[in-house]
Fold these 4 entries.
Entry 1:
Amino acid sequence: MIDVKNLYKNYYPNDSGKFAGIGKPGIKKNESVLSEDTGISFNVSEAELFGLIGPDGAGKTTIFRILTTLILPDKGIATLGGLDVVNDYKEIRKKVGYMPGRFSLYQDLTVLENLEFFATVFNTTIKENYDLIKDIYVQIEPFKNRRAGKLSGGMKQKLALCCALIHKPEILFLDEPTTGVDPVSRKEFWGMLQKLKTQGITILVSTPYMDEAALCDRIALIQNGNFLNIDTPENIVKQFNRDLWSVKSNQMHHLLTDLRTFDSIDSSFAFGDSIHFTVKHKKDFSKSEFESLLLAGGHNKVEIRKINPGIEDCFMELSKKTDL
Amino acid sequence: MKQLLSFIRKEFNHILRDKPTIMILLLMPVIQILLFGFALSTEVKNTNVVILVPKADNEIRHIIDRVNASDYFDIVGFVHNADEIENAFRRGDAKLAMIFENNFSENLKRNGKAHIQLIADASDANTAKTFTFYATSIINSSQKDFSLQNNANGMILPEIKMLYNPQMKSAFNFVPGVLGMIMMLICAMMTSVSIVREKEMGTMEILLVSPMHPIYIILSKITPYLLLSLVNFGTVILLSVFVLHVPIVGSFFSLLMISVLFIFVALSMGLFISTVTNSQLIALLISGMGMMLPATLLSGMIYPIENMPVLLQILSDLVPARWYIIAVKDIMIKGLSFSDVLHEALVLTAMAIFFITISLKKFKVRLE
């Protein structure tokens, strides 16, 4: 449904040397990902839930804006259902639903007025496609006469999703739909996306939250405008073929700097209330020896466990390996 | 069509729900007309005068009575020497001193010639010029009285007739000016801000990624402000006719026609501003500095264009309000017909076409 080939965009005009955008050339990429020299390439099949996972500034919004025909790529081709994003932009605009990263509805209009307005803008009515938005809309219906600006964060996102869905789009673009939304609403929101997928809608969604990645059919890990890897979440985790350890102590503050002084430790990252690390050579590392070293170093309540990697661990590992 | 109507309704909702702004937009013409009509009058009235009289007699009393009787002057005191005059000026008690020479009446009778010195506080040059002119004309007319008494002849007596504005009301000048200013403000400023707001709020992104034709965005943005401007036009006209007693000598229809034309120019300028900026603040600054200032200063509303340096005169040709003000004066006050202001109407039409063309050309169907 979505075909992207060698897409390249630099916001600095005319090769001034500086780069900000997507698809920076001349980068030694992870051999498992992309063979092309320049630009980014990927494709999304019909009724697939595809996730763009990466930190702020990675280029997620740029990809969305190119695909929704809002900005022009410098190089490369992108088609949606065979329609070119540059030449067939008018046709594409009839077929896609777009929910920008920032809440972009009219704050001084009520929930119902916003929905009605967007329905008429897309030449349809709420009634016509009510079945599509019903599950989401019933949750905000009690507030239908409230101004959109006075809704909570989660409610706003649900309304925005309703507005993006009201014309039954073939492809739905959701740019960070759950940023700034509480964990419960986030979970609900992803539940809705799964349902929409069963209706045959292709969904491209981006998120900076790695835990949401596992909910997508396939994901692309993106950093500094280039893809680190594209695969199913399971395969990405499987490719993490090393031992991963988690460590905690009563002095988390010093723990990270202390860990980095150990020669046997390859990489270490803070993960919430613990630190994840990998070791250079499995055979050189003994858990008990390491624990006693930490205790001797003044740490107490040391907890060391071997753990299964998550998407975030894979992301850290890949971003370290790939020279971006 | 349904899309457009729904869009226009949405725009009205935005405007009507923003209570402070709509209040300002509707009350501004009222306040401006009342301010210019009553407070910021350019007519000079009630100037304080001190008088130095060596020896009062009939002729001097006659002149003093006339000065006293006029609206233009208030006699605040009689002084006895030059020091007191200077003190009165320094304290700001007086703006004008009237000094009769010694033996004023005798000289007048004997030689037919006597002197009165007028000393004016010229720190505000225009005002000083105006009230010394008033004082001179009072003295001249007194002189006429004396000569009639003495049966002198051979005097030239000019008779002045003030055409179109016999009472010399300044309202005749500023009502067209205020009309021009308000329409410029509401149409150019509000239209540009309301389009740029969509860009700033991010809603433009969604509107662009929709099947709606961009022309609908433009049409629905200008419609409410066109109507609002017509309401304000009505307010200003009603106030000036019934409160300031400025008559509409020419045809009301012609006045309406030229006003609608001017509104279109202002709307197209607002549209143009919205295509060159992405921030509400900059749109405000451009329309404030770039449109409002010329509309007040270079349009001939406050300062006569003929008095300006040539460069500014050329610049003022580019100010739409200038042409509008001329046309309104011609129709409303001189009572000319629409065909007499065809020149102005053509200039305004050309300006509207110019701005609409480049706005449509520059209107972006994408974000960049």
Entry 2:
Amino acid sequence: MKLNDSKRDAALLLTVLLGLASVVALSRWLDDHRPPVDTKVQEEQLYLNGATARRISLGFNGLAADWYWMRSLQYVGRKIVAVPGDVQIDSLGQLNLKLLAPLLDNATTLDPQFLEPYQYAAIVLPDVDRAEAIRITKKGIAANPGVWRLYQHLGYIYWQQKDFQAAADAYDQGSKLPGVPAWMLGMKAKMAVEGGSRDLAREIYQRMYEQAGDRQVQEMARRRLMQLDSMDQREGLDKILSSVKTKTGRCPSSWKEIEPVLRALRVNVDPGGTPLDPSGTAYLLRTAECDTAIDPSSQVPVR
Amino acid sequence: MDTVETVKTVGSPTPTHAGAGRRIITIAGNTFREAVRDRVLYNLVLFVLILTAAAVFIGELSGGQERKIIIDLGLSAMLLFGVFIAIFVGVGLVYKEIERRTVYAIFSKPVGRGEFLVGKYLGLCLTLLVNVVVMGAGVSLALIYVTRGWNPLALTIWPAILLIYVELMVLTGVALLFSSFSSPALSALLTFFVFIIGHFSADLKSLANSMGGSAARWLFAGLYYLLPNLSNLTFITPAAHGQLPAAGNVAVVILYSLIYVLVILAAATVIFRRRNFK
């Protein structure tokens, strides 16, 4: 009797194992033979708008907002991964992110106090849909009038748009709020006087880097800061190359030729005498143009 | 030991007000034990698994928002699990006793119908309390884990947890009310509808205001006041931002809910008293 029971158990266990193995095999076959998804279907508009989603969320609106937020991140992440090469999250216009604005809009309608989607909208959306970026940020200000960071985001969008007066106004309104950091107070004047300057850009990205909660945004700000430093460095290197060319009548054929000059001017160089960009990658010397270029493998954004 | 055996030991020849409290406590304790024996608290294991997975993996997916998501997820799961327990256990509280015919034995003893219902209700509320407190502690610990140290949110979420518990108390009462005259399946369905409509109260009110005809206006206004306004008890989303509800509001909402429960239990007792168990 016991032997029969054991045999039956073994047979059942074998059935379970074989069944599971078959399920896995069939799933893999189906995955491999699934027809490619039509991009039009994939990019179909969201079924629910934020207001409807909020109404039917039965008090789980915070969780639903989190879901839309994570979906936004995954959506952008998938698009970035699909593109070869290095892409900055503030210049994703070419990726056709038409669902990003509705996703962020839904997240912020479901939970108007959720600040991260507003920041994401201010940084990623302008290159995709500037009007939506401004609308969502203004919606955030209307829902959270006491949060100075939202004015900072709005000022950033206008600054990128080179609308320095609107940016100055946004910083000005934010600077009147209680608890605002000291640097916000000076932003209005700086924006009005030196709107397009590199120093102001550096300050904007520095503040963004310090305050970003999202790693992607922080990384973008870090790279933009490196880009600004690199612009200064390349200007300096180009001046050196130009003065050598003036003196010798030709452009140096390699960095090695001017290594002593670079070392004397305390330029950061590698052991071979090649100057390094802020990410530690060697600069390229373009002898035809007699100027400096960023190596495509460098972390410093070219655009 | 089931309800009959327990009540036998505390019963006296005729139900007296003096012994009512003791009988209610006995029935409540027994209901709690029965729920534990029915492995109702096993849902805690699933809850812990969800929270652990969230704490470990959500950081990668949330763009630095793991604290908010853990609170939203933890408190929403707490509410959802609680609602399922309140509905599916609540609708069976009376029905099981009738089906097993133990109710005949109970009422042959000096136990009032109201005492029986209140005892059953309090027993399930105690089960839910244990559930909610353990889950709340789990969320607080998960928060401390993801922040790698003390986080004030671990404390500030507790008023929201209190309101979740009060919502579950109301739903348990509703489930008990329906189960006092209906089948478990229908009771579960009706209670679930009340849960849904309870979160649509604002829409009921605006519907009432927008209706032209006075009959429809009265109907929707009546539903608005008759059904529990559960959206008053929802504070999960603000809690995830570290906000605390105003103490005055919490007190009024709790008072509203307790009065509502009182009304439901009284109505359930009236209905239950008319049922013949002799």
Entry 3:
Amino acid sequence: MVNHDKVETAADEILMRRIEKQDNKAFAELYDRFGARVYGMTYYILQNQTLAEEATQDTFMKVWTKATKWDPKRGALITWLLTIARYTAIDRLRIEKRETPNIAIGLDEMLHLIGQTNVIDENIWYDKKVVENLLKELTPEQRESIELAFFQGLTHSEIAEKLDLPLGTVKSRIRDGLQMLKGLWLHESE
Amino acid sequence: MNPNNIIPQNDCDELRDLLPSYVIGATTGEETARVQILLQKCPEVAAEAGDYAQITIGLLETVDAIEPPANLRNRILEQAMAEPPVQENLPDADRIIKFSPWWAAAALFIILLATNLYWAANNFATQNELQDLQTQREIIYTLLSDGQFQQFELLSSDDNDTVLARLLWNTENNELAVFATNLPGLTSEQAYQVWLLNDDAVDSAGLLQIDSNNHAFLIIAPDTDLTGYTTVAISVEPASGSELPTNAPIAIGDIGA
């Protein structure tokens, strides 16, 4: 049986090698394949069409100028694109709110970490239905805090202020929620 | 001396608590700096960071695709045609500089060395901040007391007396951190480039990155063994860098025994 994931990764590699060589058609293909995913991400974070368009454009330009940075051994092309889109959109969001950029984990470090795991079955995270089922195991409060951090770029303190909660409550919601997801993932992978 | 033997286990518990938040970006600046130091001290806990990063893939997957406005495609393609990728004549920094969790500790090291505690005592708002600074210093010095770290200085070529940059060499990881806080200003068309030298070669190690506090730093982690080099130098080069030095070094120093 042909391994679909491997075939897809190989196709992505060929596409990105063409983009490295400034192949405009390859870049157009990349946009046609992933433009809606990237725009969906930037719109989800920014909730504004104009800002989402600008963040999408910035994301694709980063890919165009830094195509060599994608390492297929460290994760799927779509993960790389969406991670860049998320960081770009959150940066834009904080600028719009006149907030200083959060100096939490940087994009390059994040991309590196994504490629590091000891658990065999990482493909589980690419299955939206499985992910949604896992997320249902979280309490609504845990999920809310995790989403505010991950998609709005808010720190513990900012979330506590926004939700009018004690700081310790926010910290434990995020920690417990992610530890639970990790545990469920390890269980699914067995 | 193995630093793991002297760092209390509750530091690793602290890392275990902060790590999930760190990976999704919820830690504050102070917490982030603390995590990056603890990642060095607690490798077993640090190994879990990749697992949490995998979870972020799942979070990304929960966001639905939305068809973008039709004209966005043309705008992006037109901009791409107008701005071809920069053909760097240097090795891509991300390729020669591997990720290294100790870089944050190393960066903090030079900042802390440059920070006078007396000054800090008069300028930091709270005793807690001062205490944090002192704690961070102690951790850094603990790191440095381990045999795998060596320190060197790059002296000014002009007077051979002024220290212009400091080096922290992690011999175990084959990584060299370069820091400078006293370099003269540059025009926008110039950059500081670091060179590794031996009797046979002058190899570029990349451009010094300058942060908002005017601290310049670079982490060098080449595929080749750093012990093959005898000297490190810094010169002023074009902003995009140069394959070989085009100016005399402003700072130079030997590394190794």
Entry 4:
Amino acid sequence: MNRIKRLSINSSLEAAKPMNRLWIDERYCKGCLICVDVCPTKALKASQEINAKGYILPIGNDMKRCKACGLCELMCPDFAIAIEEDEG
Amino acid sequence: MLKYLKEEGPLGPRLPLIFCPGCGSGQVLNYTLYAVDRIIEEDNVRKENFLFISGIGCSGRITSHYMNFDSAWTIHGRALAIATGALLANPAFKIIVFTGDGDNASIGGNHFIHACRRNIDVTILCLNNGLYGMTGGQHAPTTPLGMITTTTPYENREAAFDLCKLAEIAGATYVARWTTAHPRQVIKSIMKGVRKRGTAFIEILSQCPVHEKASPVAILKRFKRDTIPIRRAEGPAEGKTLIGEFCDLDRKEWNESYQEIIDQFLAGSG
């Protein structure tokens, strides 16, 4: 939880409650898209846009499917993903 | 896991990591921090008791640049020699050594087998990507048969080192092999290795998307497809790499055996 507060630039994939939240740090992500592949429920997908650094970042596909298993956070090589489990 | 990383250095921000997109080194760093985090919590070990040592190569960049622990970035292949010295100075250290396959198997091959023979209390994480990544993708002693690298453009025809067998025969007490596509198993193995009194050797097959000219996702899928756990394999698995824990035994640790001599003399003089 400490980490999430510290991120200054991030894209929150937040929607209506109750839902798990995923934070992708755009400063650190290099667009390898391992997270999109390992997600067992396909809650993530590759974005259509290329960012200023030339990387294709992951974005939320359907965050209602996210079970907060943490596999994307665990397998991210660049420490760019954090999951916040919904407490409600 | 960012609490264990140096986000800011004297010359500005250190993150994002220097590694190429999708590199296995970042993943292994992530897994190691998960394992270390759990050991700190469960075993009540202080953060100061950990020491991270690395050699040269892509894997050498992991420790002192990013980890907010005691760490040393040492000379090529000699990470284990420096780990031996550090262990002599302070036997309470929990030492984790990051090496690459070139660093560990070719340049530091002798240090590696003798560290295993002496059974010094270190955990060796060998990131095996089958080539020399930092210098331009040349052929290494661990390159699998048939792989194309920049110095073997017509396929590699030399047999590869089986580092796990080498470590087992040389006398390591814990030997395991996993890939970067097996995160939970890697974390479990690292925790076991750190808790083990003696040499723990964990080979982690890692991906180099730049020199293998494939996407990291494709290489991770290949790791899943081309490996078979040792408990499920009957006999030599044709064309598949064995993964799993190869040995887990107890043998007297190097420092302990010397401590016995010291204790003998202390008892004699007193």
